[in-house]
Design a protein that fits this description.
Shape: elongated
Protein name: DNA repair protein RecN
Oligomer: single chain
Distance between the termini: 23 Å
Keywords: ATP-binding, Coiled coil, DNA damage, DNA repair, Nucleotide-binding
InterPro entries: DNA_recomb/repair_RecN, P-loop_NTPase, RecF/RecN/SMC_N
Function: May be involved in recombinational repair of damaged DNA.
Organism: Marinobacter gudaonensis
Radius of gyration: 44 Å
Helix content: 40-55%
Length: about 550
């Protein structure tokens, strides 16, 4: 719901701050006073096209900020969260337009692309005007309204998800079928490569272990000789290390006096004697047990040669061979009778198509029943709006047979026929601006209980009507406001008298400059404005009395 609008230096408005609540808000004023400023500013806040002419003469930039309460709009809340722009229950859309025509967009204080304003704005507000860009002229809006009216949004979402899965499998199958020859060649190559790697059966870390073993085996004579010499030097030679350490200890132990400073040194020599003796024993046992194994060396070198040759063949390092083996095996499994085989893909495609057909069939049945009821109820509202001959048809068209589509099996479009006997045609090709606004109003009244758009804006929905029909329009707008929030620009006192909130737009000249002013009217002000709309400039007591009666009736009717 729109809660606040702030407009600075836009058109002839220098500074406008407006608070909005639930219900129906009417904007009235003399022609040229600037009633369109509010709606145009809202359009810009929601990503509408801007130009330099939007900036007030003499100002550097125009600044428009619209604040919404999104606590009751889960779709908007989800969108904000998805884009990491959520800020509790408030949503602030801002648009800054410079005098050279460039503009910047912000959501909750964060710069954003203009299309983000459009996406989010479409979840917050729907503007019905006499311009061709309004949402009622789009088929996706027709489908959305019908699905909401039928209460099948969840079923429609499930159908869309089923289509996505079916479509994904079909794309994979088409790719496989189109590249069948290449796929078969790839399959044969994979089988050969995987068989080679299977035979090699290289384990992680095996190559490193083999290289270490090969280094030891190839230097067996050197290792044996050096170990034997080391054993002699430790304990077996005439001047071996163990004897030399014993001699050093003997000299220190024969000192005539005890020297505390040498205690640690004597301890270290004792430990060294023990360690040298143990090292000598270990070396002796190693030399006695050590056997050179030429056969094992040949076996290790042959294994390493096979590993190196396989790595060169695939142009990778030996360390990468296990990962390659795993990857090629997985690809082979997918192509050769696994998840990606033609037979498996065809089976999956049939399975997903069956699921889609089941959901889409339920959706089509629900839509057909709802469409008939929607047509009947919209026709009843159109009759109240002095359009009794206007035929409204929700057309479900299966032009593609039963070919799956994201939205189901049929295209949905609202058609109208203004005259009996004439074929129904799309809204954009038949309805005039005023008719389109009233058709919009009729549809919105019918779907008000199910529509997820909380704020509806109607620009001059009452064009070309008057009398009792105008009163009906006002009553319908107020009914819509009772279920959410409605803003309307109107020239008719019968409509203005029924609003919950009344904004009066006027303009004045000061220091050779023109300004627009918007004020919220109290009850007396509202009666005066209704009188002006009834009688023009010269208002008589009779006109004022008529306005008071109309205002009282408009407010009392709905209590």
């Amino acid at each position: 719901m729109l809660t606040q609008l702030t407009v600075s230096n836009y058109a002839i408005a220098e500074r406008v701050e407006l608070q909005f609540g639930k219900g129906m808000t009417a904007l009235t004023g003399e022609t040229g006073a600037g009633k369109s400023i509010v709606l145009d500013a809202l359009g810009l806040a929601m990503g509408g096209r801007a130009d330099a002419g939007a900036v007030r003469h003499g100002a550097k930039r125009a600044d428009i900020t619209a604040t919404f309460d999104v606590s009751a709009i889960p779709e908007a809340g989800d969108w904000l969260a998805q884009h990491e722009l959520d800020d509790e229950d408030d949503c602030i859309l801002r648009r800054v337009i410079s005098k050279d025509g460039r503009s910047r967009a912000y959501i909750n204080g964060q710069p954003c692309p203009l299309n983000h304003l459009k996406e989010l704005g479409g979840l917050l507000m729907d503007i019905h005007s006499q311009h061709q860009h309004q949402s009622l002229l789009r088929k996706d809006t027709h489908r959305k309204l019908l699905d909401e009216f039928a209460g099948v949004e969840g079923l429609a979402a499930d159908t869309r998800e089923a289509w996505k899965r079916w479509h994904h499998i079909r794309q994979r199958l088409n790719e496989r079928q189109q590249n069948a020859d290449e796929a078969e060649a790839r399959l044969q190559l994979l089988r050969y490569q995987v068989e080679e790697l299977d035979r090699l059966a290289l384990e992680d870390g095996e190559q490193e272990q083999l290289e270490q073993e090969q280094a030891q085996l190839s230097q067996a004579d050197t290792v044996l000789h050096s170990s034997h010499q080391a054993a002699l030097l430790c304990t077996e030679d005439e001047n071996n290390a163990a004897d030399l350490v014993r001699q050093a200890l003997h000299h220190l132990e024969q000192l005539p006096v005890e020297v505390p400073a040498l205690a640690d040194t004597i301890q270290m020599l004792n430990e060294a004697q023990i360690q040298i003796t143990e090292a000598g024993d270990n070396l002796r046992h190693f030399v006695e047990d050590y056997e050179a194994d030429p056969a094992r060396l040949a076996e290790v070198e042959e294994r390493l040669s096979a590993i190196y040759q396989m790595a060169r063949k695939h142009r990778i390092t030996p360390e990468e061979l296990p990962e390659l083996h795993q990857r090629l095996s997985a690809e082979l499994a997918e192509l050769d009778g696994g998840e990606g085989s033609l037979e498996q893909l065809e089976a999956e495609l049939d399975e997903h198509r069956t699921r889609f057909d089941e959901l889409a069939g339920q959706l089509s049945e629900a839509r057909a029943g709802a469409a008939a009821e929607l047509d009947q109820r919209v026709a009843a509202e159109l009759a109240q709006l002095s359009m009794p001959n206007m035929q409204f048809i929700t057309h479900l068209n299966r032009s593609n047979g039963n070919e799956p589509a994201p939205h189901g099996l049929e295209d949905i479009e609202f058609l109208v026929s203004a005259n009996p006997g004439h074929p129904a045609r799309p809204l954009a090709k038949v309805a005039s601006g005023g008719e389109l606004s009233r058709i919009s109003l009729a549809i919105q009244v019918v779907v008000a209980q199910t529509s997820t758009t909380p704020t509806l804006v109607f620009d001059e929905v009452d064009v070309g009507i008057g009398g009792g029909t105008a009163e009906v329009v006002g009553r319908l707008l107020r009914t819509l406001g009772g279920n959410g929030q409605v803003l309307c620009v109107t020239h008719l006192p019968q409509v203005a008298a029924q609003c919950h909130q009344h904004l009066f737009v006027s303009k004045f000249t000061e220091r050779d400059a023109t300004f627009s002013k918007i004020e919220i009217l109290d009850d007396q002000g509202r009666i005066g404005e209704v009188a002006r709309m009834l009688g023009g400039v010269d208002m008589t007591e009779h006109t004022i009395a008529h306005a008071r009666e109309m205002f009282s009736k408009g407010q009392a009717t709905h209590h």
